[in-house]
Amino acid sequence: MSLKSSKKLLTKVRTFATSANLGPGFDCAGLALDIYNDFEVYEGNSKKNCVFFNGQDIQGIAKDENNLICITIRKVLERKFGLNFINYQKPIEVTCKINVPVERGLGSSSTAVVAGLLIANRIYDLNLDILELLNIGLEIEPHPDNIAPCLAGGLVISYKSKNGSYKFEKINIIENFKILLMIPDFKINTNGARKLIPDLIPKEDAILNIANFAILISRLKDGNIENAADFIRDKMHQPYRKDVYPDSLNIVEELNNNFEIPAAISGSGPTAFAFISESRFKDFNEKIMPDLKVKYSDFEFKFTKISNKGSYYF
Amino acid sequence: MSLKSSKKLLTKVRTFATSANLGPGFDCAGLALDIYNDFEVYEGNSKKNCVFFNGQDIQGIAKDENNLICITIRKVLERKFGLNFINYQKPIEVTCKINVPVERGLGSSSTAVVAGLLIANRIYDLNLDILELLNIGLEIEPHPDNIAPCLAGGLVISYKSKNGSYKFEKINIIENFKILLMIPDFKINTNGARKLIPDLIPKEDAILNIANFAILISRLKDGNIENAADFIRDKMHQPYRKDVYPDSLNIVEELNNNFEIPAAISGSGPTAFAFISESRFKDFNEKIMPDLKVKYSDFEFKFTKISNKGSYYF
User: Fold this and answer.
1) ipTM of this predicted structure
2) In a domain, A105, yes or no
3) Count of domains for chain B
4) Residue A48 Cα to chain centre, angstroms
5) Which residues of A touch B203 (CB under 8 A)?
6) What is the pTM of this model?
7) Which of the listed residues B123, B152, B172 is the one where a domain comes to its end?
């Protein structure tokens, strides 16, 4: 599929897959991965003020104004120009090259929201900064744990600031590991998965997550994830969702408990991920992964790394 | 008050004050402070198998076998020798020099528990390691956030391991700040304060604490606590206890909100503490502290630092 077109090119953006939660960092932590979607934006020749989506024909991605990119662009314009935004709209066409698996817990929808944010900021010359973009994006997708790392790159912890708006902190870590994604062949709708988690949770579960996540971050900063499997354990989301991704959780528990390899569910699943330290990589590849591939033959196994760069124009 | 005695000296231990929670690190984080209690242990001449407590006459500290040191020694013996422990008991007398304020949220009772653990380990030649001591101590005082840093020194995050026992992680940080303790003239019973916090808490509050605490730890490791007041905010304990330490919480909020100085309640209060960065220390002392001292005239203001050493024999 070519990204070329005879129409006038307005901008090109690259947005990254993200893995949210990282085990105990529920609804606040996310990691940008080196897997990305590319979007080319052309002047449209339609009278319709909406995005027409060309490119790969991917099931579940709308090709009309209901596409998340289009929705996001309208939201940005509405925030900037109020209800008159409709007068400012330019017809555009977007061509895409999609590499991020859809509805697998890898932040696919955030790649579209962030694309919409960056496209609107550029083609309407808005000069919105990254925090303004984040907070507009959150009106579309109300959880920052994918959008913030998708915008900023790296390992990002988002938080609600005193004034109620979201901010984030990019955490410097030592990346002496590879990230193994284990992607099963079915989709999970994030909104459905969210409903499985009650509004009130046991205090003791929260304490476990607070301790584990802080230690996990400390270990990542020290470049010391050997024997860190204890610290990726979570009690706030994965146990409630175990019926929607039983095999994924089995892999996670097997890696954590039998091999001391830190593993967790990516976002709301069904993808599982693991941090494979460089020092154990050869051993893992030769002795552990072959058996996993046999046992979990429906899963795609794929190594990736962190994208320390955030989404960008190219 | 002299620590000397004509009786045979068995051991001397020094145990440290601790500040638990550090804002969002509820029930898992604690910091050992450079304020300590010293205990000298002598052979007793009594037939009673219990600790007789000499030294300062401090209200609220039992002088008989109900003293926490004595209770802890019995618990260690019981764990080691079973119900026959009574046959192993040696009569001892303990003389103390108490510097850690009692029932102020500075881990005073943990100094006694840890003293009991270390004394028992030494005088009965038990060779228990620090994790064994921690877990026995937790049978007396069931929360690790004071006992673990009192034993290990430094900034410690405790966690429940897979097998249910407690472990801890000592976090290396850059200490480019002073710790200001603000100690009001009244006591709070920790057990009573614990009952104010419900067993079920809003998920959103837990998420705030998870994010804030991980960022706070990251900032402390980077030696960057400028503008870190956002990250010491907590929703899991301080708001529930605000009626028991209203002035302490006022100081905390004033420092956080008006001066961007990270401050929180120490343990279950009523002491408040703040991290005063070296770069702002002069400015704080000249411009902020004088007003605070006038406004909160019932509080003692005291600077201290971290004790990176854990409790020890001396």
Assistant:
1) 0.95
2) yes
3) 2
4) 30
5) 197-201, 236
6) 0.95
7) B172
